[in-house]
Design a protein that fits this description.
It is a single chain. This protein has 228 residues and is an alpha/beta fold. The protein is built from 6 helices and 10 strands. Strands 1-9-10-8-2-7-3-4-5-6 form a 10-stranded mixed β-sheet, sandwiched between helices. The longest helix is centred in the N-terminal third of the chain and has 13 residues.
Length: 228
């Protein structure tokens, strides 16, 4: 484990390099008291300059970006410089991601999704990944993306998708930012859903302007729960 102080103590590309491929990391931000969103329900209302710096670097390094459909809608996602893969059991393409150039946005969904036909029409049939009957097979999603040459995958949440990735053992790493704020109230945490107990190992800890940035290795769960 490395502990660093200050935002310029080392190269972020080196500090956050994936140790192998395929590699799926999830990046989340929260306050000291565990709030994953601010008053407007968005994570963008609690992050700071340090978090944004790492957020942009992780996006630059990734081959593809994965995000849950609910988070994409709430946060108002727009196309990124890398392929954006939306995970949705309902195959609903967020309004802000419709009408984009083919291949910019992909959908990971399941056969029973009510919006499957519309998603294929919106994105193109080759950009809609049908992975499972009633739930999205997240382990299969990781493999399918690797088969496309996208071995370094960044997931940006949200809390339910993070919980499900951890439950099935699809996440290799959790990157966390803890911003120096307290919000109280009833707020979403970085995981949401049925209980899980996943052990983590701290790999890197950076302090910059009182913000704590960490890389956590996810240890395998002996009997993962099939949820997504």
């Amino acid at each position: 484990m490395r502990v660093l102080v200050g935002p310029d103590t080392d190269d972020l590309e080196v500090l956050y390099a994936a140790p192998r491929r395929p590699w799926l990391r999830v990046n989340m931000v929260s306050t000291v008291d565990g709030a994953a969103t601010g008053a407007n329900g968005k994570s963008g209302s609690i992050n700071d300059a340090v978090d944004r710096q790492v957020f942009q670097e992780l996006r630059r390094m990734a081959d593809a970006i994965v995000v849950g459909a609910g988070t994409a809608r709430i946060e108002g996602y727009r196309p990124a410089e890398k392929p954006l893969v939306i995970v949705s059991r309902h195959a609903q393409v967020p309004e802000t991601l419709r009408g984009m150039p083919p291949g910019t946005v992909l959908m990971a969904t399941c056969e029973s999704a009510p919006g499957l036909a519309e998603a294929r029409q919106q994105l193109g049939i080759e950009h809609v990944l049908v992975l499972g009957l009633h739930r999205v097979d997240l382990l299969l999603l990781k493999q399918v993306l690797a088969d496309r040459g996208w071995g370094d995958v960044l997931c940006e949440g949200g809390p339910r998708l993070l919980r499900d990735l951890l439950a099935v053992g699809a996440a290799d790493e959790l990157c966390t930012t803890v911003v120096p704020r307290l919000l109280a109230g009833e707020r979403t945490r970085i995981t949401h859903g049925a209980p899980i107990d996943v052990p983590l190992e701290l790999h890197l800890l950076i302090e910059a302007d009182s913000t704590l940035l960490a890389r956590w290795w996810v240890r395998p769960v002996s009997e993962p729960v099939s949820e997504s």
